[in-house]
Amino acid sequence: MLPDNAIISINRRNLITNKVDKARVQKMAPKIRKAFPNHILIACSGYDSMEDIKRDAPLVDGFLIGHALLQGKLKELNEEFPDKTFEVNNDKKNL
Predict the structure, then answer these.
(1) What sign for the dihedral angle of Cα 75, 40, 56, 12?
(2) Cα 36–chain centre separation
(3) I need a surface site. Which of 12, 52, 53, 79 has the fewest CB within 10 A?
(4) Tally of domains within the chain
C-alpha cells in the first residue's frame, strides 16, 4: 500500500523498444485514479506536441518532459496550465 500523496508515473515510452504509446495515459490514468485516488499522477516521456499535452492534461497532475520538445516553452506551458506542474529534464539540470 502506498502512502497518500505518493507519486505515480505513467511512462509513455517502452524502455525496451523505445517506442512511444501516445494512448497509454488515456488508457491507464482512469484505472490508476480509481485504484489510488489520493496520489499524484505524472505523465512521462514521449511528448512531442502541445496537442498531446492538452489531451492528457485533464487526466494527470503534472508532466516530466524531455528537453527535445520544450526548450524555451516551459513558461508558455506553465501559463496555459497553471494547475499542472511541468519540469524539463535534460539529464544535466532541471529547469
Answers:
(1) positive
(2) 17
(3) 79
(4) 1
For 31, the domain range is 7-89
Would you state the pLDDT for residue 28?
Answer: 97
Query: pTM of the predicted model, to two decimals?
Result: 0.71
- Residue type (1 letter), 5: N
3-state helix, strand and coil shares in percent for the chain, rounded to the nearest 5: 35, 25, 40
Domain presence at residue 38: yes
**Residue 2, in any domain of the structure:** no
- What is the rounded distance in angstroms from the CA atom of residue 46 to the CA atom of residue 56? 12
- Ranges of residues in the chain with a pLDDT under 50 are 91-95
CA distances from 14 to 11, 24, 49, 54, 58 (A): 7, 10, 18, 21, 23
pLDDT in the model for residue 77:
77
d(C-alpha 56, C-alpha 43), whole Å? 8
